[in-house]
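hiii, so i know i said id send this last week but things got crazy w the move. better late than never?? heres the sequnce for the chain we talked about at the cafe, plus the structure i predicted for it. fair warning i was half asleep when i ran it
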Amino acid sequence: QVHLVESGGGLVQAGGSLRLSCAASGRTSSMYAMGWFRQAPGKARRFVAAISRSGGGTYYRDDVKGRFTISRDNAKNTVYLQMNSLKPEDTAVYYCAASPSPTYRESSYYTSDNYADWGQGTQVTVSP
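okay and structure toks below
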């Protein structure tokens, strides 16, 4: 099992930036794809971004492309989400997730079922 801890959330004005971090511990050798999901009040948890084990493949939901960047440092067992040009609609709790097995289909990166381990989440609030 992998233990994930997110940090870096907070309150920011529209147009501002935040950098989320997700530190992993435990069986980190079993981590493959890593993903970020978010859940706004009263809404379902939704995919935000994902990255392959090597970091060579990155995947984003359409409305964050060009604004968010996912990256990972395998030596530090950490994945990051750089969020620029934030909008009020980005307000949500952001969760980090880890997949315990190789991902062969691109579509799998986007689905929560692909991920077995989840962090507790970090709140991101963007004011108008």
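btw The mean pLDDT is 95. thought thatd interest u
miss u guys!!
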